[in-house]
Amino acid sequence: MLRSMITAANTMNQLQQQLDVISHNIANVNTTGFKKRDAVFGELLAQQFQNLPKTDEAPRFTPDGLRLGVGAKVASTHMQMKQGPVVKTDRPLDLAFTKEGQFFRIFVDGEIQYTRDGAFYLSPSANNPDELMLVTADGYAVLDENDEPITVREGFKDIQVTQNGTMQFIAPNGNIMQTVNIGVSYVTRPQLMQALGDNRFAFPPDVNAPNAVVNFANNRNAISMQQYALEQSNVELATEMSELMITQRSYQLNARAITLSDQMMGLINGIRS
Question: In the list 84, 164, 181, 200, which could disulfide-bond 220, CB 3.0-4.6 Å?
Answer without folding.
Answer: 164
